Amino acid sequence: MNPLDRHIVELEDLIDLAEKVSNNIDALVKRRNRIKLFMILPPVSFFLLIAMISTVRDSLSVLSMGTAITVLCILLCYTYILWKEHISIDDKIKRESSILRKLLNMIHPFQESLPKMGVSIMRKSIIEMKLSRIKFSNIEDPKPTRQKKQAASPPKEPATSP
Amino acid sequence: MEFEKWSDIAPSFIRVPITAYKYRTTIQKWWKKALAYANRGDTNVVVLGRPSVGKSVMMAYLYGESNDMSWKLPLASKDVEVGALTLGDWTKLIRVIPGQNVDERHKGLDETLRKNKKLEGIIYVVDWGYTDVKDATSKSRIIAEGTDSLNKLRDLNLTRELDDFKYICRKIVETFALGTAPKWLLIVVNKVDLFFDKNELDAAQAYYHPKGTSEFSRAIQEFVSEVGEQRIKCASLPLSSYEKDMEWNGETIHTGIKGEENRKALAMNFFKTISNF
Question: Above 0.95 for ipTM, yes or no?
Answer without folding.
Answer: no
